[in-house]
Amino acid sequence: SKELVICDVKNPRRPAILSKTPLDGYGDGVFVRGKYCFAATGHHSRKMKKRDESDPAYGGGHGLEIFDITNPKKPKPVSRIKTPRLYRMGMDMWDVIVSGDYAFMADTYNGVFVVDISDIKTPRFVGHRQLDYVKRKDHSPVGGFAIGKGVIYAAGAWTDLHVIEAPMARPAESEPDRPPIIPPYKPEKLAKFRIYKPDGQVWAVAFADDIAMVACGSAGLHAVQLWPKIKKLSEYETEGFAVDVKVSGNYVYVAESKGGLSIWKRKKGGTLKPIGRFRVRGQSIKQVVVPERGKYALLDVGQASFYIIDITDPSNPRKVFKDQRLGLLYGYQITEGLLEDRYACCFWHVTGFYWYDLYGGPKPVYTGDNYRHRVGAQNGMAILANGKDALITTPKGTYVVINRKEQRGPYELPQHGIKGHDLSGKPSIYGNTLYVSNRFWGRVSFVDISDIKKPKLIDAVELDGNPCIIVEHNGCPIIPAGYQGLLVHKKKIGR
């Protein structure tokens, strides 16, 4: 957002924004010393009008900006110094460390800079070093750095660790400070919900009959009774953070981050027994989707890989397909369910949505269909009740409807939304009810889409937690709300 944001954290449980001050470039690293705040920036200048190299502001947002924060509600710009104009995708990292009379900057492909700040109003460069030029036909970007005595340690994203001689370098000294006092946690009172609050962060929920299987992050997997009253039935330790869970037939599938995918068999009395595990060496598994037929599981693996595994034998799951596209899988970017009962979808934040035929041949294949448009990692896709079309939420707070062959961009299509209400977020659909959860902003919406072109807001809630994909069970929305717990709506919403 090209801003320096200062927050009041006297009460760490209730942080409050004090000010937002414009930066010329995309903000990243900050360092505070005394009354000054140093902000490292990159990518494009705020002055950019055309998104191409003919505009002098294109790639012109790199540099260091210094502010006087004596009054944190009204920061005052003091000075600015620019590093070379540059724009290249693949590494968005700019940082700054201040020690003595110098500010040390890391500027990805531009390398490391040393800035003399003895005269705070007129900073000047006194040192610069780019990392090695490599076969990728560019200098290795700096992915992180630290200051030692007489040296700068730079992490080369493509070239490992560099030790750069810098006679003026000294490790930064921490200034005396007092940490804020953290008051005891008091459970939130949400009139519309009953709350299950485990020790970990609630990421996802799925149902085995009427028993909720809850992915509780560091607290593992919990089996919970939600009606008539909330009661934990059992708890299962996981190897990694439990960040997603699905139920298919007699089996429960848990995405355990670094622990891979665990598979559990349901036994009499609702207890679980571990029977299988799928791992990808050195990679985490962050999402699992098990389409209705139960033959395959779809997985989000590592930073950008989409896997399809055969789970016909749950004790011996095996990979049958892998794809990787330009962009990242920030989380929950595999669509729940199938289009036309056979086509799965996964989207990468740069190159858009890709379709996969699970049942048209002996093995799953990419269909060649790519809806090549960005909608942002906070948004997503849900299959409509007709099974033939899909709904995609957009950054503008609306949604559009597409089929598998659609190629027009989101803003070339009819926009459907609710005036004055933002519908950006992860969608899920049950019958004629659309649920949208925005993990970034803590916002959830319940929407009547019986007329897809004229959505009607049923209800909306602002949460302190970070909600993930909403599940409806017996007509009631169930919200995995991060550290706020699992929220169980007291009334039936779905129809």
Characterize the structure shown:
A hairpin with a 5-residue loop joins strand 18 and strand 19. The strands form twelve sheets. The chain has a four-stranded antiparallel sheet, with no helix packed on it. A four-stranded antiparallel sheet has the order 7-8-9-10, with no helix packed on it. The chain has a four-stranded antiparallel sheet with strand order 16-41-40-39, with no helix packed on it. The two termini are 39 Å apart. The model has no long low-confidence stretch (mean pLDDT 95). It contains no helices and 41 strands. Helix content is 0%, strand content 45%. The radius of gyration is 25 Å and the shape is globular. It has 495 residues and is mainly β.
Amino-to-carboxy terminus distance? 39 Å
Fraction in beta strands: over 45%
Gross morphology is: globular
Give the class from helix and strand content and strand pairing. Answer: mainly beta
Helical percentage: under 10%
Summarize model confidence as the mean pLDDT.
95
Largest sheet: 4 strands, antiparallel
Say how many strands there are.
41
Strand order of the largest sheet: 3-4-5-6
- Low-pLDDT regions: none
Rg is: 25 Å
Draw up the topology in text.
Blueprint: E1 3-8, E2 16-22, E3 26-33, E4 36-42, E5 63-68, E6 76-82, E7 94-99, E8 102-107, E9 112-116, E10 124-129, E11 133-134, E12 138-139, E13 142-147, E14 151-156, E15 160-165, E16 193-196, E17 204-208, E18 211-215, E19 221-225, E20 231-236, E21 244-248, E22 251-255, E23 261-266, E24 272-278, E25 285-289, E26 296-301, E27 305-310, E28 318-324, E29 343-348, E30 352-357, E31 365-371, E32 381-383, E33 390-393, E34 399-402, E35 426-430, E36 433-438, E37 443-448, E38 456-462, E39 471-473, E40 476-480, E41 486-489
Antiparallel strand pairs: 1-2, 3-4, 4-5, 5-6, 7-8, 8-9, 9-10, 11-12, 13-14, 14-15, 16-41, 17-18, 18-19, 19-20, 21-22, 22-23, 23-24, 25-26, 26-27, 27-28, 29-30, 30-31, 32-33, 33-34, 35-36, 36-37, 37-38, 39-40, 40-41
